[in-house]
Amino acid sequence: MNILDKIVADKRKEVDLKKSLITVAQLEQSVLMEHTSISLASELKNSSTGIIAEHKRRSPSKSVINQSLNVQDVAKGYAGAGVCGMSVLTDGKYFGGSLDDLVLARASVNIPLLRKEFIIDEYQIVEARAYGADVILLIAAILSREEIKTLSETAKSLGLDVLLEVHNEEELQKSIMPSLDMLGVNNRNLKTFEVSLETSKSLSEQIPDDFVKVSESGISSIEAIQELKPYGYQGFLIGENFMKTDDPGKNAKEFINELKK
Fold this sequence. Notes:
Strand content: 15-25%
Strand order of the largest sheet: 1-4-5-6-7-8-9-10
Shape: globular
Low-confidence stretches: none
Number of strands: 10
Structural class: alpha/beta
């Protein structure tokens, strides 16, 4: 059983437990269901930099990244830096995140918020909306084509953008459908955790132009982004690079200013 299989098995138990505690009808009563979603895809299309910055405390591959910062300060710092959107990890067991992080980020900023989560059930999409997300992530490696269709259509019906993440050609081919807004290529091999930008380059031609192309993982330099832009990428998800510093917002600002030169 690889790490992804373990995470998904735990996630199924977690979702079943949550469903028994809070019903979909209760989630739908959330005041944040009325929040007007901000489209990350639109922000990326209209941006010269395309940075999506992440709030991440730890990960299975790196253990602790940064446990000392509060999410409101990080969110405000990122918004001040001019990022296109913020990714908020909500998985507790493996990444040290929570839905509270999403709510606190939403209360702090008015930029697109991506719920970064292992989504396997429509319940989690209603939950994302109820806690203030504008965008959800779907991971092709853990979903069938039918599941991707059902989950992405549910998200669209709730006014959410959909970013679908792929790791290889097989995942990409099964995933392309009109209910997606963005296609993300994860440069990290989930089995070995090795990272290579060649993954984004090789898959770029197979992503139809209807979708905003996003490159994820292993992007820690201006050079990496400049290398990927000719391949049509408009979004760049930066996870650990900002979070491993004492002031992610300040670092994001310096990075974006350098990128604009």
